[in-house]
Amino acid sequence: xxxxxxxxxxxxxxxxxxxxxxxxxxxxxxxxxxxxxxxxxxxxxxxxxxxxxxxxxxxxxxxxxxxxxxxxxxxxxxxxxxxxxxxxxxxxxxxxxxxxxxxxxxxxxxxxxxxxxxxxxxxxxxxxxxxxxxx
Length: 135
Description:
Elements: H1 2-38, E1 42-44, E2 55-59, H2 70-73, H3 76-80, E3 89-96, E4 99-107, E5 120-121, E6 126-128
Antiparallel strand pairs: 1-6, 2-3, 2-5, 3-4
């Protein structure tokens, strides 16, 4: 019984740390985006250092889970975001060595990443933060 309680406690602490980490990551990315918007409009992805990652995928609002690969379409954290029915966020899906290590619900009110080409990014990449209003 004691081992079950300790196991559940460890699971709860792990879940809380995950959401806290993703909140810290969201705060960091929001600050980087705001800073880039005020400066040269270039988001340098190597400045995102809240977790170890080697791949970033931007998932647009209303993206159907059926359009994602099998691994992603069954990811419980990703499913919980309900991105297929939401238009207020773009998901930033961070992977390391093929495994999902972070999912950030980035608010489109801060910056609308849904206007950015959907592709896979690495820490070496940059994203130009322009909108139709900037042209």
